[in-house]
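Calcium channel YVC1, Ceratocystis fimbriata CBS 114723. Tokens?
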Amino acid sequence: MTDPSAEYGRSRMSLEDDPELVAEAETEADLEDAGLLASSDFFSGPGPTNFGEIVGRQNNHQQLAVFMGIHRIRRLVIASIEDPYSAEQLRGPRMNKLIVRPLVERLYDPQDLSLVYCLLVNRVQFLRSQTSRNVQQSVMLARAALCEILATKVLRKFDEENSGLQGLLLVANVLVAGFDPFQGASADIHQTARLAQWPVQDRGGHERKLTALELAILAESKAFLASRACVRIVNAIYEGRVTFTALSFMDILPDHYKHHPVALYDPSKAPMLNHYRLKVPQLRNIIELVQFLTLAVLYFMAMAHRNSPWMDLLEPVFSIYTLGWIVEFIAAIIEHGWAVHSQSLWSFLDVAFVLIFCCYGVTRLLDIFLEMSSAYSYGLDIICLAAPILMTRLAFTIMPDNIVFISLHAMLKDFFRLNFLVVWCFAGFSMSLIWLLNESGNSDAATDNPSYLTTVKWLIWIWFGLDATGIEKSTEFHFVFGPLLTISFAFLGNILFLTILVAILTNTFSNIIADADAEIQFRHTVLAFQGVKSDSVFMYPPPFNILALVCLLPLKFFVGPRLFHSINVFFIRIINLPTLILIHLYERRSFNAKPRSLTASWWWWPFNFEFRRFSPHADIDAVFEVELPDALLDNLEKLDPLEEVGLLEGDTIVHKIPSVGITNTARENELQRAQMRLRTSRTTNSSSI
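Tokens:
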């Protein structure tokens, strides 16, 4: 067994001999300047006082055999599951005893932080395989479900066996540290099997990497994301207590001079103008809400004054600001791909608004070129269509955790998918009737035959059950085939289609409501993951991001990475100066774990007051927020030792047998008190979700 302190001493000695390690040590020194320290006052529980030990352990990720781990897990899962099982059956006590627990004991390695990543990689692959192999579709789904269950069990073991700050950082590394699926493979495999990827931006050795959290979102592993250990880390990331440099597919304005590893943030040790806090998901969502409100206000002001002289001023301001907002929207898509971005509730609304604005921009330029007035402008008529989209998007943004909006997002996917098939069939019926019309005679105004638009209108009315004129006049198309086609379309479109549509939407809604907590946590995880931005363009609010692209992006090709980073940070701090000051003042108060005094300074009163405490039932919450003294924790441990409490695992209760004749040392007592504080904090956090 190697002494960790000796290993750390040798790693410190090796810094002087390797220039790359010297540069890495400079980056670690920058972490302290940014307040990214492991010893924090707002995280309860014991932890290492030297952050360098944690960072050194993170650097050992490069030595993990990820490639072999992926194929080892795939081989074991395929051998274990050969019949179709549901997720509920795999979670049962029998399957848990025969398959799940033996695999967890075989695979779990406390030194292998890539294990959860390898399990989720296999889950993604099994889900993709079931779409192309219809014969083994159910078996592939069962194997994918087993991978999710194993990942949940392994993550819980990491969380239970590591407490305090060290455990928090370790579990955070399991979820958000980047891994390469070909890491540990031979050079021949790298050359022959690795696919080309566009574009591979230089990230200082962090290219082509993904995180376990991103794979869980991509595979929609909602049970895994709803587990206690995962919720704990996601909440810490969302609040900005756990920070890291995000890994993205492509950046529009890349600044990869520094790569910060997973660390804890302490605002008391951070500078006032800490521009990295603009990437905190909780703060980022507030900033994006303010930006979207600004966009909506500019839109409604421009539309309200479309026929007044103020339009000459409001329309350019709205257009320029919207272009900056669209740049941010495009950067969000290409950062992690459409598969991840589409998981956000308002992604389809943003796409619709961008399409409408693009059509407005093209037609408005034509109107200006043709010198048409606003009263006859097609561009202004098109942009009017954005009003319902903006209002709906605003509601989705304000209430992202509302189960009604979550259900609506999922139901709209099924609705548009089914309507696409119906429109396809509708096109076939309309073409048949039009061709029959051409055979029977002309369709001009001189004859009584219906026109093309009239034919389409009749079919739409039959589709929605509004009118039966098309059926009554179907003989005008053909005395035999006309009624046959229209009546068949009425049965298929109005009866069968509506029945299938209602059944599908009802099933989707019932499935979401049945597991509402997991759905809400999944959307919360998507917000947290997408909130940690990698592209520097997100740090410039619209429309300054357009100016940054015009000025800074060409400058990147003429200056070095260090100078470009300094210039970029300077402009970010200047533009976001009021925002950074407000963030610093807010975090200095909100991250303080000490109880707020009733005699605090009067000028801090707006930051101290909480309206939820102004209630006759406020003491119910306050009694659980108090940090228990050590004497009380010792008395509770004597009354009810946690080692004797049965643990409910699945449907099986595991009884813990206390050890007889062993007295706890002072270190063990301190560890038990820390674990009890940790469990108390977890219970408090889970109750606040």
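The mean pLDDT is 78.
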